[in-house]
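Box 3.1 A note on notation
Throughout this textbook, protein chains are presented in two layers. The first layer is the amino acid sequence; the second is a token string describing backbone geometry. Keep the layers aligned when reading.
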Amino acid sequence: VRDADRHARRARAGGGVGPRARLERPEQRKANLEVVLPGPPQSAGAPLGDDVASSGVAALDELLGGLFWGDNVVWEVASPAAGDAFYAAAAAARYDGRIAIRLRDSERPPDDFEIIDARPGRQYAQPAPLLSAVGECCRRAERNLLLFPGLDTMAEQWGATVAEAFFARCCPQLLRLGAVAYWTMSAGGAY
């Protein structure tokens, strides 16, 4: 009981217990100090353990302790092209299944990814069939990475309300399936 109390006090005081329990101390917020975590840095794509995946960015993996299987990562970017670096880094990391969703002709998913073609007029162009296809693809491998086009693109194609509903249904499904998903959205976007 004493150890549990000590860990709880330490977490409240900002000492943290494990990579997800970090809290800032007031003096750290004021000074805007960089927090250096203990332990050796991970290289991009290095295995982090059975319960975590790599983001493909070693500094981010070190800061977060990796991504948990089922995480949905949304990058707020200045332009759609700004998200490409994050997608490329994730694509370089190790995953059993690699799936990219394509909504527009101009999108060029990585070559070594299974493509779910959701462009207008295609089989998965509507949210419900796309959601089913995502689930089917994720069931083929144990540890999956999904690269979604920007949420802004989905909102333009389906309308903001439908895109929001798709996102709200897809994220819990990916959590249950243990898949890591990358999404982007425009900083200060209309949606």
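The first strand starts at residue 52 and ends at 53. Residues 33 and 153 are 36 Å apart (CA to CA).
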